[in-house]
Amino acid sequence: MLTRQTLSKTVGGPKAPKDPTKKRPFFFIMQGKEIFGAPQPDGRGVQFLYMDCGRLIDAARLSGNIEDDYMLELLKSAQGFKTVVHSIGVSVSGRDAKEPVKFVLEMYPEHPGEKATQIKKELYMDGMETVINLEDIEWEASDKEVGQIRFEFGTSGIQAAADVRFYLNQGFIAPVQPMEQLVDFKSSRYKKMISRSLLHAGNTARLEKVLSKAGSGENVTLSFIGGSITQGAGAIPINEKCYAKVFADEFQKRYIKGGKVNFIKAGVGGTPSELGMIRFERDVLRDYAEKPDLIVIEFAVNDEGDETKGVCYESLVRKALALPWKPAVVLLFAVFSFDWNLQDRLGPVGIRYDLPMVSVLDAVTEQFKLLPEDGRVISKNQFFYDVYHPSNLGHQIMSDCLINLIDNVNESRDTSYEEDEKLPHPVIGGDFEKVELLDKKELEALKKKYKITKLASGSFDDVDKDVQLVEMDEDIIPRPEFPNNWAYNGKSSDPEPFVMNINCSKLLLVFKDSGSASFGTAQVFVDEKKIKDVNPLEVGWTHCNAVILFNEEKNRQHKVEIKMADGMNDKKFTILGFGVVR
Questions:
Q1: Exposed e or buried b for every residue in 450-464, given b needs 16+ CB within 10 A?
Q2: Which residues of 541-552 are buried (b: 16+ CB within 10 A; e: fewer)?
Q3: What does the radius of gyration of the chain's CA atoms come to, in whole angstroms?
């Protein structure tokens, strides 16, 4: 007869396991975060998640409900991070549980070029947690802060979900971590939330024209211009789950009868309408090869730094409204996780032109404060991918807010609306309504119009190929923004300035921001007078930046000179282009 003891000896049955070690308190910095292996030149796929510049603190607040100011302050530095965090728990779930993925947490150094710590761990996408003990890490003395987290896949296109927990050292506590409930998209609460997004219905004549065209068997072109949210930041994958594509697909399903949707997405991360108005013809109209029927403008969370406080935004709106085929224009106001946008500043523009306006802030922020049993539809952690960008759920909600507008127009068409023949006077300003992009590509075509009697690139005669990359339209492979540039490569002991003689009333400089210490400050002179020092390191990452050089009432001839500042001859600087008004 087999006893329990002989059975164990015979078949190698397991011994009683030890009691599980009591887990340390922890908080999430990611919970169920969707990740995607974006294609890299070497064939791998990588999801980059930046944690510098306060983003780690935002993640601790948003995903981990951390409100302890002392703990949050410690997380700002490398030393403080090691004081708080004992170990890191990482789990990844994907379609193929046997597929490996490498988790990397990279510190950023005190000074560019110095060596910094990289914590690496390979695991499988089986949902099992792997714990990395920080006591086992050899730290670099130059570590300044947690810089980024990466998930590296062997091939591109892999989609998964990740949890990252920070287990705490003794003496630190964390609040109970919330486990999210599913969002019921068919509930009356959800529909009521979406209905709150209709900030202003406006004159719907142009939208009704779009719906009539869609229902008559014709193709309809839907276009979107904005910042990183319109680019698709937070959506996984960015080209399929961004609000613009989700909306276009839903519009195709509901309203297109026989034709198809032509989709134009022109969002550029980190940029305001000050840049959007300059690139409008190139990125939205595709140099007038396209005639969008609908133009959605989304800059309500990007325009805080607009030096005109709304003039550039209204100039862009007027530029779109003035197109001869009279497209429908919709103003979309996104929201940040701290319940903020600029709709109070920019909303009067929509009122002045009686435009449809959709507010995501109005839809979701009030219900964020509720418990599920009190009427909350979606939590803030579910809606946001990070402190600035929506998750897939957030992008879906943004799309539904736009569809709600279209549904309302479709259900209550009002043929009494008439299209305005003439635009009213601006409410903030329309100084740059006729702004045009001037770069190397457009130079020959615009020379005569702007009486450019001289353009000498001097030592700015190189081309910078390391410019901001953007996923446009349905593409997953990003394309370069402003590739036709003038670049100084830092290789001259006595660099010659860039000089342009031009006849215009208003001029903006578009230059490249960078996070590389190889870039340095340039000085801008207009008519021999220095008007600006331009430092490409202020923002700290590679993207496009536009600044006003002058804004005058009348056209006149100007000499514009750009040269490297004293002591900067060995540094680089890239002129991406200009915005010109005559």
A1: bebeebebbbbebeb
A2: ebbbbbbbbebe
A3: 27
The DSSP bridge partners found for residue 470 are 479
Of the candidates 238, 222, 357, 229, which has an alpha carbon nearest to the alpha carbon of residue 291?
222
Give rounded-to-5 percent helix, strand, coil for the chain: 25, 30, 45
Helix/strand/coil (H, E, C) string of 100-134?
A: EEEEEEEEEECCCCCCCCEEEEEEECECCCEEEEH
Residue 12 above 50 pLDDT? Answer: no
Q: Is the dihedral of CA 237, 239, 242, 243 positive or negative?
A: negative
Q: Token pair 């540039």 is at which residue?
A: 485
For position 21, what pLDDT does the model report?
55
**Phi, psi at residue 362, to the nearest 5°?**
-65, -30
Of 508, 472, 516, whose CA–CA distance to 268 is shortest?
Answer: 472
Between CA 86 and CA 124 the distance in angstroms is: 22
Report the candidate in 383, 47, 62, 59 with the shortest Cα–Cα distance to residue 238: 47
The tokens for 119 are 């914590």
Tokens representing residue 167 in the block: 């287990």
Contact between residue 431 and residue 581 where contact means Cβ atoms under 8 Å apart: yes
pLDDT tens per residue across span 453-501: 999 999 999 999 999 999 999 999 999 999 999 999 999 999 999 999 9
Q: Give strand pairing partners of 34.
A: 161
Sign of CA dihedral 103, 239, 306, 427: negative
Residue 37 burial (C-beta neighbours within 10 Å; 0-12, 13-18, 19+): buried
Q: What pLDDT is attached to residue 417?
A: 63
Pair of tokens at residue 86: 């004992």
Pairing between β-strand 454-456 and β-strand 522-526 as defined by DSSP bridges: unpaired
Buried b vs exposed e over 77-94: b needs ≥16 C-beta within 10 Å?
A: ebebbbebbbbbbbbbeb
Per-residue pLDDT reduced to its tens digit, 373-395: 788 899 887 898 888 999 999 99
Question: Beta-carbon neighbour count of residue 490 at 10 Å?
Answer: 18
Cα–Cα distance measured from residue 239 to residue 471, given in angstroms and rounded to the nearest whole number: 7
Indicate whether 552 pLDDT > 60.
yes
Q: What is the pLDDT of residues 196-214, one digit of tens each?
A: 999 999 999 999 999 999 9
The pair of structure tokens assigned to 124 is 């499988």
Alpha-carbon span 514 to 517, nearest angstrom: 8
Structure tokens that stand for 572 in this block:
């680089």
Please give the Cα distance from 400 to 394 (Å, whole number).
Answer: 10
CB 202 within 8 A of CB 350: yes
By the 8 A CB rule, do 27 and 174 touch?
Answer: yes
**Beta strand ranges found along 110-234 (DSSP E):** 118-124, 130-133, 143-153, 159-168, 198-200, 220-226
Q: CA-CA distance, 312 to 542, in Å (whole number)?
A: 22
Give the C-alpha separation, 226 to 249, whole Å: 19
